[in-house]
């Protein structure tokens, strides 16, 4: 009764004020706390951590996102160079150093929004996640096929996915929700332009690009870092589906991409990608009209050339889908020596969230599963938890000692042989978006770069969905498209008339 009275005492406007689950008012739900506007993020992001850890646990046991997937084993073969330079100029990571060096890999492709048995013809970004089993332990690179993302701050990720997921009451995906969120998130204009073009439905996993999306760093022997973007270019070529083509396939086969990947490998037609990077000096680059750490942006190839570093080949299908594809667990924090993080806010949020999700979804000991276990020696004092099956062998000379430091034959720290990378960080801790947002330039560039049939398909797909949306949402979206390119906005407006 007291609770009901308290609720009745609230005005309509107060009832709509956002709080966290502790009842604390949320005055900024757009930006994480960072050192300066560009980051890095700080650990005391309580509202973000509460929000993302709850989001990570919203589904049991299927992945909240990327539930629909296919995978295959393969290898990475290094060229020993990055463009025309020795790889060692930029990174000391061992897998890149020698020409012809082979590193085993496992790749999982996926769609993002829909469930584990959903059609693979749906318009959705495609996940492109690679596990490199290097001699220094695992390196995971987790990205997508469209090179960019909808948002730049991780605190918005649960909201983004909720807008794209089915309505919690009707259990149906609702364009009104999708475009309501997008229309209030200007930085998403670039990604929407990609997604609603034919690029939004790859013909199959073999015929799409891959990208790390976030900005990372490479570090060399001298502890000098460079900013880096990772790209995978399919040697089979690029192929897409129009909406009509996708619907025709979906009427007969909702597993077409999984089937295509499996059958290609079985007949020896091994998919292959050129693994490339873009390199940039490790500074703020004030000469650019965008922030190089912004995951809603592409680095222009004419300014930052796409440099080949090796090739990725898939040549073996899984023997058991569940054990290998479903239980495969990736994380953006899984890096090896010579590779590092940038201050990209979205990357830092993903780095916490991904591993937290895997511990929840698969279990605390998910790294003991064969598909996730490194192919090099593991020696750790971590033990126990559900499904611990290492049989007490932690790699120590004395199994009684599960702590460090110890003088009784316990595990010891590895000697340092190379210079640490020690970036300088200084600034006020704040919640603030970056200054160089430039939300429309690259969206307009992308629209103008499309061929006529791609622009026509983009407009058709957008208009078809926006007709289901409220008039105010339509107007906001037209405004964003017009800012990107006047013709772009006018064609959408005319289609809705």
UniProtKB/TrEMBL annotation:
Catalase core domain: residues covered: 19-412
Task: Name a GO CC annotation attached to this entry.
Answer: cytoplasm
Please give the residue ranges the record annotates as the region Disordered.
403-427
Q: Which GO terms describe its biological process?
A: hydrogen peroxide catabolic process; response to hydrogen peroxide
Q: Which domain of life is it from?
A: Bacteria
Question: Which cofactors does this gene product need?
Answer: heme
Q: Which reaction does it catalyse?
A: 2 H2O2 = O2 + 2 H2O
Q: Which UniProt keywords apply?
A: Heme, Hydrogen peroxide, Iron, Metal-binding, Oxidoreductase, Peroxidase
EC main group:
oxidoreductase
Entries under PROSITE patterns matching the protein: CATALASE_1, CATALASE_2, CATALASE_3
Indicate yes or no for the key word Iron: yes
Q: Which InterPro entries match?
A: Catalase (IPR018028), Catalase_AS (IPR024708), Catalase_clade1/3 (IPR024711), Catalase_core (IPR011614), Catalase_haem_BS (IPR002226), Catalase_immune_responsive (IPR010582), Catalase_sf (IPR020835)
Q: Which CDD domains match?
A: catalase_clade_1 (cd08154)
Active-site residues, record numbering mapped to chain: 66, 144
Q: Which family does it belong to?
A: Belongs to the catalase family.
Known function:
Decomposes hydrogen peroxide into water and oxygen; serves to protect cells from the toxic effects of hydrogen peroxide.
Q: What is this protein called?
A: Catalase
């Amino acid at each position: 009764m007291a609770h009901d009275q308290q609720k009745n005492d609230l005005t309509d406007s107060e009832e709509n004020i956002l709080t966290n689950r502790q009842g604390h008012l949320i005055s900024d739900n757009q930006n994480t706390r960072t050192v300066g506007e560009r980051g890095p993020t700080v650990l005391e992001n309580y509202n973000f951590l509460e929000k993302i850890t709850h989001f990570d646990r919203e589904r049991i046991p299927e992945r909240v996102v990327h539930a629909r997937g296919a995978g295959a084993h393969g290898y990475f073969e290094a060229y020993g160079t990055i463009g025309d330079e020795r790889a060692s100029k930029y990174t000391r990571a061992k897998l890149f150093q020698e020409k012809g060096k082979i590193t085993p890999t496992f790749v999982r492709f996926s769609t993002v929004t829909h469930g584990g048995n959903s059609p693979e013809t749906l318009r959705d970004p495609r996940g492109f996640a690679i596990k490199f089993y290097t001699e220094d332990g695992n390196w995971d690179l987790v990205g997508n096929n469209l090179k960019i993302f909808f948002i730049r701050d991780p605190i918005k990720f649960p909201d983004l996915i909720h807008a794209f997921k089915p309505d919690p009451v009707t259990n149906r995906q609702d364009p009104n929700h999708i475009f309501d969120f997008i229309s209030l998130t200007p930085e998403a204009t670039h990604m929407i332009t990609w997604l609603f073009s034919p690029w939004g439905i790859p013909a199959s996993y073999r015929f799409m690009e891959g990208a790390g999306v976030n900005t990372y760093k490479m570090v060399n022997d001298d502890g000098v870092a460079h900013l880096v973007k990772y790209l995978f270019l399919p040697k089979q070529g690029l192929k897409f589906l129009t909406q009509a083509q996708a619907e025709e396939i979906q009427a007969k086969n909702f597993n077409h991409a999984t089937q295509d990947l499996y059958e290609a490998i079985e007949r020896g037609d091994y998919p292959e990608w050129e693994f490339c990077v873009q390199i940039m000096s490790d500074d703020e680059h004030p000469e650019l009209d965008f922030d190089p750490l912004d995951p809603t942006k592409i680095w222009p190839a004419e300014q930052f050339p796409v440099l080949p570093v090796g090739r990725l080949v898939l040549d073996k299908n899984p023997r058991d889908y569940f054990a290998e594809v479903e239980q495969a667990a990736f994380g953006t924090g899984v890096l090896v020596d010579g590779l590092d993080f940038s201050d990209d806010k979205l990357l830092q949020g993903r780095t916490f969230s991904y591993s937290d999700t895997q511990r929840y979804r698969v279990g605390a000991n998910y790294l003991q599963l064969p598909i996730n276990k490194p192919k090099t020696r593991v020696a750790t004092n971590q033990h126990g938890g559900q499904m611990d099956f290492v049989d007490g062998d932690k790699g120590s000379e004395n199994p009684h000692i599960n702590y460090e430091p110890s003088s009784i034959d316990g595990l010891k720290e590895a000697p340092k042989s190379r210079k640490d990378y020690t970036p300088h960080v200084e600034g006020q801790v704040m919640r603030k978006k970056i200054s160089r947002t430039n939300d429309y330039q690259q969206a307009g560039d992308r629209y103008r770069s499309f061929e006529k049939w791609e622009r026509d398909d983009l407009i058709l797909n957008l208009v078809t969905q926006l007709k289901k949306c409220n008039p105010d949402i339509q107007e906001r979206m037209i405004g964003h498209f017009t800012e990107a390119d006047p013709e772009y906005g006018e064609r959408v407006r005319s289609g809705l008339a």
